[in-house]
Amino acid sequence: xxxxxxxxxxxxxxxxxxxxxxxxxxxxxxxxxxxxxxxxxxxxxxxxxxxxxxxxxxxxxxxxxxxxxxxxxxxxxxxxxxxxxxxxxxxxxxxxxxxxxxxxxxxxxxxxxxxxxxxxxxxxxxxxxxxxxxxxxxxxxxxxxxxxxxxxxxxxxxxxxxxxxxxxxxxxxxxxxxxxxxxxxxxxxxxxxxxxxxxxxxxxxxxxxxxxxxxxxxxxxxxxxxxxxxxxxxxxxxxxxxxxxxxxxxxxxxxxxxxxxxxxxxxxxxxxxxxxxxxxxxxxxxxxxxxxxxxxxxxxxxxxxxxxxxxxxxxxxxxxxxxxxxxxxxxxxxxxxxxxxxxxxxxxxxxxxxxxxxxxxxxxxxxxxxxxxxxxxxxxxxxxxxxxxxxxxxxxxxxxxxxxxxxxxxxxxxxxxxxxxxxxxxxxxxxxxxxxxxxxxxxxxxxxxxxxxxxxxxxxxxxxxxxxxxxxxxxxxxxxx
Length: 481
Ligand SMILES: Nc1ncnc2c1ncn2[C@@H]1O[C@H](COP(=O)(O)OP(=O)(O)OP(=O)(O)O)[C@@H](O)[C@H]1O
Ligand SMILES: [Mg+2]
Fold this sequence. Notes:
Elements: E1 5-9, H1 13-25, E2 29-33, H2 36-44, E3 50-54, H3 62-72, E4 78-82, H4 87-95, E5 100-103, H5 108-120, H6 146-158, E6 165-168, H7 175-184, E7 193-197, H8 206-211, H9 228-231, E8 236-240, H10 247-259, E9 261-262, E10 271-272, E11 276-281, H11 285-290, H12 296-302, E12 305-308, H13 319-332, E13 339-340, H14 342-350, H15 356-370, E14 375-376, H16 378-386, H17 403-416, H18 427-446, H19 451-458, H20 462-472
Parallel strand pairs: 1-2, 1-3, 3-4, 4-5, 6-11, 6-12, 7-8, 8-11, 13-14
Antiparallel strand pairs: 9-10
Helix pairs in contact: 2-3, 4-6, 13-15, 14-16, 18-19, 19-20
The structure holds adenosine-5'-triphosphate (ATP) and magnesium ion (MG).
């Protein structure tokens, strides 16, 4: 049975009762109060082994109290709960030295688990508290959906660390924004933030971009040049589109991460490096690993803390907040003020957003700039969504697109075509048929209509193939020679 005495502060009596019951049942001694003054009295006289507190209390905000608590009792774990579930609440809780931040409503089981963990952990000196910065200005990440709150909590926990983070997510979900937030609110925020986009640099220049080169290292290297590792010293290096990194550069990067030092292209002396690595990709690295295009050992080095940003269609609750945010931003840039009516918002929530937040941001900008009406209505939205604009990065559509992403793109458009309705039932078999038909046709064409060879190529039983050809009504054109 766990032991320990817990102090609870929340001005909501119902929440106090629930916590009292749950914590007592778990074997803790509990004392609760409804204001900050009482909590402070208890804490300052040395009571309690752990504090659970709400943020907004009638007499004082817990964020103002926290630094004082940490000053007199640095070892006392404080769990902060809040119904204001924004990025800044999570960050502020972590900045002020909270042990954990819990968005309300939360799972009691989870709370009990956190309490147990906090009380059993060896006490370590707290990291120095942050100065209270300019936190009131730009809030970087908008959205209060449960999916985003999970992200905020992980981010808040990461702020005091140097752990390598791997951000994944579809295009336009905010990967770069998160990478910057990790830097701007983390302990390296006074150092540089340096980004390098693997997809934007010619393959044979990537190593020299990363590590720098000496004069004369290759044709055209007319002078010594600093690499991104050097530029990012004591700060954060953001490796964007890491899935596009060429193999040789991967090998070299892995060595640098393992040894903590690098040499410039053409240079001989090893240079020590102190950078925090954040990587991002919209590709599935596990598939690239299977295809032999990404080193598995490098993946494990980078994937220390994986962070998956959910596509916007999985968190449509965030759409209204984002819309407001982007209209405000447009207004600050000098565009006229706009409002949006409920039906229009509704339409935006039902859209599938293949280009995610970026697509929404661009749409709002267009609305602010192009429409004279002050109130944006559903019919305006309808007209805008019906005009095909290429908001997803166009280069992705070309060239090396994988079959999976091409199918996904197709499906996004397909679902989008039904608006708020669903496509007719039987989708699974319809789609598989759409893939099977061209696949079998291609195999038969490649084997000049030879079914035995085609079956072998496909790895199908010959009779299965024959049946499929019949079912799918594939025309076989035999060519001699
Ligand atoms: N939660 C959010 N709150 C506010 N703005 C956001 C949010 N997420 C994304 N944005 C905005 O959307 C745009 C796209 O974000 P970002 O460039 O970070 O996406 P990305 O995941 O890196 O996309 P890509 O894979 O195409 O590079 C940016 O202008 C960013 O500021
Ligand atoms: Mg990006």
